[in-house]
Amino acid sequence: MTTLNRRDLLKAAGAAGAFNLAWPLSAGLSPAQAREAAEVLGADYDPAPFTLGVASGDPQPSSVVLWTRLAPEPLAAEQRLPEIVEVDWVVATDPQLRRVVACGTAPASATLGHSVHVPVAGLRPGTRYWYAFKALGKKSRVGRTKTAPVGPISSVRFAAANCQAFHDGFYAAHRGIARENVDFVVHLGDYIYEHGQEGGVPAEHVRDHEGPEIFTIADYRRRHALYKGDRSLREAHAAHPWFLTWDDHEVANDYSSTGGDAPFMQRRAAAYQAWYENMPHRDAGNSALPDPEIHRVRRWGNLLELTVLDLRSYRSERNLADGTILGAGQKAWLKRGVDRAPDTWHVWANSIMLSQLRGRPGGSYMFTDQWDGYLAERKEVLNHVHSSGMEDFVVITGDWHSAFVDDVRLDFDDTSSPVIGTEFTAHSVTSGAYSPDWNAANGPLMGAANPHLKYFEGNRYGYDVYEVTPKRFSTHMRVIADRRDPASPVTTLTTFHVDRGKAGSYEDPATKNSPAQWRRDS
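Below the sequence we write its predicted structure tokens.
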């Protein structure tokens, strides 16, 4: 078989005007050639049939969900597998899987893309475990997970990632997350992107999508398989349990879920099913086909209450007087949770910016696809938080491809309005931010227009690590040197702290001279 050269293949695809003319799904390539072509274009896989790796998610004190998906030909429209494949799984207290504590067999069906979601029960709280799968005579890699603790604990460390456009860079950030000493990971959305090829590779991008814009269940399965083709993402999944929410690009850019026509609702259903098939998510339903319910509350001992929000599935159109970003049911659920909140740190996993963001003093909102498009509901929810007496409130957010630190105020335009919490918006894993020139010009404008904005930095990519103790919540902004380098080193750009019992954040003196396009105290 002729060896394929990455640069020559990219040039040929670019000259033809579309990557799908050279991509492995094209006619005439054998499965072996298709696999090689995928790797030439920037994908890499575990040995079949566990090509997409393993993962765990939604850890609770006695339970965690284990995931894998059988895909011997990861980018094929259909897998050459029986309708049902029996998959063995095992959980142990050692990496060699000798001290087994649970094991069993689960069916992987074609209906759900030959995915497996095993809700393992009967585990010990606050305990590390290792796990693996076996099917068709082959073994998967070994994954590591951890259950949630109960009662008093002295600390928790966790990471958050968001916005990982495949074409914009390699996942060095996920390589960093895999190596972090954290208890769990929160993904804040835009796990995949739905659009077609970018073109211009390798001049503007290091790799590209495998085909045109996606609409069907087969399309979305291929796109998820492409993204899992980055080994660093598979490593991060195998290293830690994950909590997940989604934003828009898992389905379509800036979508709302009300008022869609039949073709869009079919597309959304396909996207949601493929998302579930490819994620370590604990589904709340009992139907044959999943309708994933994302919002949930999980606790990490007596130290942290994590509230995961779904800001896409129930939202109305934006900029309506009675518009909703949460939906009536989720909003009532959120308020009940606030009323019952224990005395602990309260963290909302929030896919899009909660804080107000004007582009310039006296100007309009920059993006009303975020909470700025749902002003009445934001005011209602924040007033409920304040009137309930809930303290130690932190919001972690994705979407913006840049880092922000905001005071959460009841009235964002009034500097005398009380500060009730802090919002940390994290850098993206790879998805392109504004240019350095734009950031330099607009950072001060945003700072002047938003008196609650304390920090803005948009020239870097990476993830956040949060370190929580009974006395302090610390956010470490971890950044990579170059998203074009899959082994790019990771450093800490800066650190912000929130002290227990005192709303508002402050930058660590040791890092406050790091580069940024806006600091309120500078």
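The chain has nine helices and 23 strands.
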